[in-house]
Amino acid sequence: MSLASETRAAGAAGGYHPLDGGTLPDYLAKLENCASILGGNPSEWHVDEVGDGNLNLVFIVRGASGSLVAKQALPYVRLVGESWPLPLKRAFFEHEALIAQIDCVPDLVPAVHHYDDVMALTVMEHLTPHIILRKGLIAGNLYPKLAEQISEFMAQTLFKTSDLHLSAKEKKQRNAVFCDNDALCKITEDLVFTDPYRVAELNRWTSPQLDDTATRFRNDAELKVAVQSLKEAFMGRAEALIHGDLHSGSIMVTETETKVIDPEFAFYGPRGFDVGAVIGNLFLAYFSQPGHAGNGQDRVAYGEWILTQIGEIWDRFQSRFLQLWESQGQGDAYVAGLFEEPDSVAAFAAYRRTYLQDLFHDSLGFAGAKMIRRILGLAHVEDLESIEDPDRRAACETKALALGRTLIVDRKTYESMASVISCARQLQGGDEE
Ligand code: SR1
Ligand code: MG
Question: Which residues pair with 112 in a beta bridge?
Fold first, then answer.
């Protein structure tokens, strides 16, 4: 039996089966709270399968009085097919992470209506009229609350699940739960930190335009060492419960609201991985803008808006995180009572600033790795993929790769986000002389 058939057989033996538009209403009708949200007769509920991510089934169910979302894990990677089995238990980690996030930032994540361990299924709030941030950035929409709300999400979750806020015992217990999410971590370890830098069957890029670049990246010793140091940090530094896949496809927005979805990659890892995911994906959106120019829009002003968001997100994240540390730093690390006399107060305040600067450098490195994997690895992003002309797409990708590389290799030389932004701006303008 193949691994995929074994996984499927084990799931079926336990009662798991993938739902569809025909079977989901019967399933939901038995759940009092879900049936009451939907209202009316289950035979009239309308089901759309809308999953456009890489892994799962996602259904929107609409009834007479309301709607909800049901997300069900498949026993394999949807993007690739049954040849790549993936444990159903990722639904358990997603639910655990959602509950932990609800605890920290209830307004910034969807409400959970129901979780079924056997069916690997979570029923949650249907976020409407929110759209996926990535699509909004491709459309050129402005989101005035994005920087404030996404930095609040990151500061709260990355502070309150860590040793800075929790007792050592509680942090260890929480960490232990997520250690078992090894299969999803392995996807990141391979697809983000390893495969783009070696010949791998599923790698792809805009060819032939980027063929030489891909070869150059595979032979770039300095880059490979730096990426592997980030990989070691990802594998070993259990700093906080990270979302683990916080790209712009995991963020839903309206003009006034930001909601973070899809934390199935969550585990205890380095905080900078989440911050870097947000920043790196915004830089990808930035470099893709010339590819979306047309119909009288050059997208220059919109690109500047994206850069402003990147600066604002880092500034807001940093000051909120520090504020939380100063006001709620009751964890077992840096025991509060040790820093009461003036010398200690000053030394600790200076140390906290260094700590945030280290986190800044981590975030830049992870941002670079997240950018490069979306151009030279397996899973690409719509920001770039939707640019139909391959020459134009490759031009955008070349600039993004250049920023990604310097963010990884030179990360410790950047003193501020302003200097990173100015480097991005120079790369963007590089071919306009
Ligand atoms: C095989 S899964 C590919 C990617 O999709 C998810 O969104 C993660 O980013 C993962 O790396
Ligand atoms: Mg996802």
Answer: 124
Listed in sequence order, the residues at least 6 apart from 35 whose beta carbon sits closer than 8 Å to its beta carbon are 28, 29, 42
For residues 364, 369, 371, 377, the Cα torsion angle rounded to the nearest 10 degrees is: 180
pLDDT tens by residue, 180-221:
999 999 999 999 999 999 999 999 999 999 999 999 999 999
Beta bridge partners of 61: 47, 68
Q: How far is the CA of 100 from the centre of ligand 2 (A)?
A: 17
SS3 193: coil
Q: Which atom of ligand 1 is nearest to the CA of 191?
A: 11
Closest Cα to residue 308, out of 143, 133, 138? 143
CA of 200 to the centre of ligand 1 (A): 16
- Integer Cα distance of 76 and 88 in angstroms: 8
CA torsion sign for 224, 230, 231, 233 is positive
- The ligand minimizing its distance to the Cα of 189 is 1
Identity of residue 360: F
Instruction: Determine whether the shortest distance from the Cβ of 77 to ligand 1 is under 6 A.
Output: yes
**Helix (H, G, I), strand (E, B), or coil: what is residue 247?**
coil
φ/ψ (deg, to 5) at 85: -65, 150
Written as one letter, the residue type at 356 is L
Of 164, 352, 161, 144, the residue nearest 254 (C-alpha): 144
Q: Are 382 and 134 contacting, i.e. CB atoms less than 8 angstroms apart?
A: yes
pTM: 0.96
The residue whose two tokens read 């960490």 is 175
Query: 62 pairs with which residues across the strands?
Result: 46, 67
Q: How many whole angstroms from 206 Cα to the centroid of ligand 2?
A: 23
pLDDT tens digits along 4-41: 555 555 565 679 999 999 999 999 999 999 999 999 99
d(CA 150, CA 156): 10
| 368 Cβ neighbours under 8 A, 6+ residues apart | 276, 280, 403, 404, 405, 406, 407, 408, 411
Q: Is 347 left (phi over 0), alpha (psi -120 to 50) or beta?
A: alpha
299: alpha, beta or left? (left if phi > 0; alpha if psi -120 to 50): left
Identify the CA nearest to 228 among candidates 276, 180, 220: 220
d(CA 156, CA 312): 17
Helix%, strand%, coil% for the chain, nearest 5: 60, 10, 30
Kindly state if the Cβ of 86 falls inside 6 Å of ligand 1: no
pLDDT digits (tens, 9 = 90+) for 294-332: 988 999 999 999 999 999 999 999 999 999 999 999 999
